[in-house]
Amino acid sequence: MKRRFLALMVILLALLAGCTTPTSTEPRAGDSAIPASPRSTETDSSASSDDLTPLTIGLTYIPDIQFAPFYLADKRGYFTDEGLAVTLRHHGAGESLFGALAAGDEDVVNAGADEMLQARSQGIRVTTFAQMYQTYPAVLITPKASDISSLAELKGKRVGVPGPFGESWFALLAMIEEAGLTQDDLTIEFIGYTIQAALMTEKVDAVIGFSNSDVINFEAAGMEVKTFSIANNPLKSIALGALETTVDKQPDVLNKLNSALSKAMRDIMEDPASAVSDSVDYLPKVTGANKIMLAEQVLTATAKLYGDDPLALDPAAWPEMAEFLRSNGLLQGEVDATAAVRDVSDSAKKND
């Protein structure tokens, strides 16, 4: 399998600079090596009060419309209604995905459930307690006129992916496996976050991107594309996680967080445009009619990933996900998949 070694070295250096292994993420699907923000930003989402429980949530990228459930729950008072004083903390450049959580600077992190399982194998006892995306957003994207009509037809093709990390990489490995291929059957190009340019200039035949953002960006740029998903996907995407000790001791608090976010997610599903209007105060770069319209398109597509039952968990899927990650060399040690996921609604009831 050919690779562009220079691009790989750049990615590896970036990962080392962030003091993290390849488990970094972007909000769209869990995939950035170094976020674009020059620093971490924090937004206090409610005034401190003795009768509110403080909770810091790590949003693993710069402000983005895909974090709208958090913005909306803050703006519309859903966190306060649940007795929570929430701080939304956006991650900054070079910051590892789970570093602040492990250090106790965050109580909850928003990241891929598959990445949480990977982090758990590295010694960070993060436990998934809510699933935000019920549909995996990473897809194969090709020009509409491409002769690729199935994943099996990737054989001999050039496929661009940011690097050997994150959910785009996990998705590509799952696609290769589902198609009955090996990595040597195609040319994998590590292209960083240039997938739009790489595909539009025919540097590659296909890219791994995200259905709720990249596909929309291609269309906005005037390029017609088609997408291919993983039919039997063992992976779970964007979720909420906390350290095991937090889940053990405060399931009621996490359950209240779920209630607030679930309400916000249902609001988004019912009226994405209104949700964008209430989120723009948190999005300094979303100004002007065109950017607001694009944000509405992205949020509408993102809402389709929530499913009919926002934040619902499927713990039975974790062993299969763990086996996939293990068989592809993505886990650094043994991990108990069943202990890596917890339904806090059940735990909270037991503690009542």
UniProtKB/TrEMBL annotation:
Q: Does the keyword DNA-binding apply?
A: no
Q: Which InterPro entries match?
A: NMT1/THI5 (IPR027939), Solute-binding_3/MltF_N (IPR001638), SsuA/THI5 (IPR015168)
Residues annotated as signal peptide: 1-25
- Pfam families annotated for this entry? NMT1
Every Solute-binding protein family 3/N-terminal domain range: 54-273
Q: Where is the composition biased (Low complexity)?
A: 37-50
| UniProt keyword annotations, A-Z | Signal
UniProt superkingdom: Bacteria
Instruction: Check the record and name the SMART domains matching this protein.
Output: PBPb
Query: A GO BP term, please?
Result: thiamine biosynthetic process
Q: Where is this region: Disordered?
A: 23-50
The protein in question is named NitT/TauT family transport system substrate-binding protein
What are the leading ranks of the lineage?
Bacteria, Bacillati, Actinomycetota, Actinomycetes, Actinomycetales
